């Protein structure tokens, strides 16, 4: 886990990007909306969720990073509309680019797995490569260039292990290269890629992904091309395992709960939500941290407890979780999602400007 200082700098970077997004779009969009409202019935354009509330004030907007490592980040996004939070979730899943294997050239495959199944398995292997340093390949480009393509090679041949004990029946002892793993995929630099990228910067994210099982006489000779893409076109380009959010739970005790009732109330919630304290020789329930509540609603099973608790959610406080596949850290992925949303806002405003000229 990273230090608190890094947490602060990362959250500041995310907050800064969110504020830029707000500043760039608010004034111009509001001008267009005012113009539309002057020509259209206000009831059609406005409802309880006013457009002005999509972003609250900058003073209220806040990012708090709770947990952060190379693969996972949990943070609180406070003071934004649910539409914005959901936009980031969808962008992370489908429109933040990554590198993935697109073309598979099979020169030899004598294993039992079919060519098309093998190609599909190879395409789903997450790659460690920074997509920000590559361009999108043109549709009519079959070969690719060093600016838009990474080339890999998979050459493996299964043979007998002549040093194996005569009584062994373990395939790992009897054969060599009987299991083909992602570590067997080797990067072949194109052009000047070898001087630009380190060998450790390019390749499969994990070395132990099983691709195929072979026996003596089986052989693979394959060349692979990886390109930049987005999951909107194919799921293999998704840079995250998952990205999701939930609203912060809010648990309030409406009356004193003591004794045996307090103990039962504590068991109705996830560990850490309800605590017990001694008051005048009796155990009294108190709320410790509603964040851990999973909203099981077990308390409503008891008639004598159902009126003692009020459970709600904070409507503008989102607990956001991002799990990266490993190509880029989760904080970088979120910043890339902010950039994608900013570009969409600019494109939308450009179209509005065209329609009014």
Automatic annotation (TrEMBL):
Record GO cellular component, one term: RNA polymerase I complex
Subcellular location: Nucleus
Domain DNA-directed RNA polymerase RpoA/D/Rpb3-type, residue spans: 72-351
SUPFAM superfamilies: Insert subdomain of RNA polymerase alpha subunit, RBP11-like subunits of RNA polymerase
One Gene Ontology term from the biological process aspect of the record: DNA-templated transcription
MF (Gene Ontology): DNA binding; DNA-directed RNA polymerase activity; protein dimerization activity
InterPro entries associated with the record: DNA-dir_RNA_pol_30-40kDasu_CS (IPR001514), DNA-dir_RNA_pol_insert (IPR011262), DNA-dir_RNA_pol_RpoA/D/Rpb3 (IPR011263), RBP11-like (IPR036603), RNAP_Rpo3/Rpb3/RPAC1 (IPR022842), RNAPI/III_AC40 (IPR033901), RNApol_insert_sf (IPR036643), Rpo3/RPB3_RNA_Pol_subunit (IPR050518)
Entries under PROSITE patterns matching the protein: RNA_POL_D_30KD (PS00446)
Residue stretches spanning the membrane: none
Keywords annotated in UniProt: DNA-directed RNA polymerase, Nucleus, Transcription
Family, similarity comment: Belongs to the archaeal Rpo3/eukaryotic RPB3 RNA polymerase subunit family.
Protein's name according to its UniProt entry: DNA-directed RNA polymerases I and III subunit RPAC1
Organism: Timema tahoe
């Amino acid at each position: 886990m990273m230090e608190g200082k890094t947490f602060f700098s990362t959250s500041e970077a995310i907050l800064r990007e969110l504020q830029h997004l707000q500043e760039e779009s608010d004034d111009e969009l509001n001008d267009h909306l005012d113009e539309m409202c002057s020509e259209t019935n206000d009831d059609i354009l406005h409802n309880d969720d006013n457009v002005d509330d999509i972003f609250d004030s900058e003073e209220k907007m806040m990012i708090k990073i709770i947990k952060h490592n190379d693969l996972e980040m949990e943070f609180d996004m406070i003071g934004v509309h649910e539409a914005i939070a959901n936009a980031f979730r969808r962008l992370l899943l489908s429109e933040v680019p990554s590198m993935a294997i697109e073309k598979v050239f099979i020169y030899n495959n004598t294993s039992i797995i079919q060519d098309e199944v093998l190609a599909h398995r190879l395409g789903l292997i997450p790659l460690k490569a920074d997509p920000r340093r590559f361009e999108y390949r043109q549709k009519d480009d079959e070969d690719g260039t060093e600016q838009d393509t990474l080339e890999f090679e998979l050459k493996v041949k299964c043979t007998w292990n002549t040093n194996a004990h005569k009584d062994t029946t373990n395939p790992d002892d009897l054969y060599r290269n009987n299991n083909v793993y992602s570590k067997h995929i080797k990067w072949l630099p194109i052009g000047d890629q070898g001087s630009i990228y380190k060998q450790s910067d390019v390749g499969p994210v994990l070395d132990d992904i099983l691709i195929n099982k072979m026996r003596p006489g089986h052989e693979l000779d394959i060349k692979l091309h990886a390109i930049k893409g987005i999951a909107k076109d194919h799921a293999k380009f998704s840079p995250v395992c998952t990205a999701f959010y939930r609203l912060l739970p809010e648990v309030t005790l409406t009356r004193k709960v003591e004794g045996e009732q307090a103990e039962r109330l504590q068991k109705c919630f996830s560990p850490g939500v309800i605590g017990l304290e001694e008051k005048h020789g009796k155990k009294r329930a108190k709320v410790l941290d509603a964040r851990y509540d999973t909203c099981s609603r077990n308390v409503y099973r008891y008639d004598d407890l159902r009126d003692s608790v009020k459970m709600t959610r904070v409507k503008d406080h989102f607990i956001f979780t991002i799990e990266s596949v490993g190509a880029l850290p989760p904080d970088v992925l979120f910043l890339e999602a902010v950039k994608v949303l900013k570009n969409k806002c600019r494109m939308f405003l450009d179209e509005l400007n065209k329609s009014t000229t």
